[in-house]
Amino acid sequence: MAKTRASVDQFAFTFDAPQPATLPAALAGVDARTARTVAEILKGDKRDRTVIAAEMSVLLSDEVTLNMLNNYASPALETHNISFSRMLALIAVTNRFDLLDREVRPIGAAVLVGEEIYTAEIGQIDSEIDKLLRRKKDLKRINPTITRNRRK
Length: 152
What we know:
- There is one protein chain.
- The chain has 152 residues and is mostly helical.
- It has two domains: 30-111; 113-144.
- It contains six helices and no strands.
- α2 (49-60) packs across α4.
- It is elongated.
- The termini are far apart.
């Protein structure tokens, strides 16, 4: 059976809460992992790398070249790590938010893209409603009668 590739449009988001890195060396090797992610992004994009570099250059208002992209994609070139701004530009021009999500989970974060934030807000609203309904139920249990002029 042939391997099939997941569509880039399919953002395999998980609702498991990511845990922040706290153990010693938990983030060791991030530079090499980032380089492999850059390589994965570039390999998965059908456009020529010079086009990707040009689009990044426009976003950043700073030149990004084909050679730079190739160097960023090589884990062996430890002196050619991609900067955060260039990584963000690469994610933006390739729409690989799924890989950005994968890369930020080790620090306890997750990525929501565009209008997905509304779904998260709905969850927050539902949580607040549940909390208020529980409080209302507790108050009904107590149910003090309000009477005025209790003095006889």
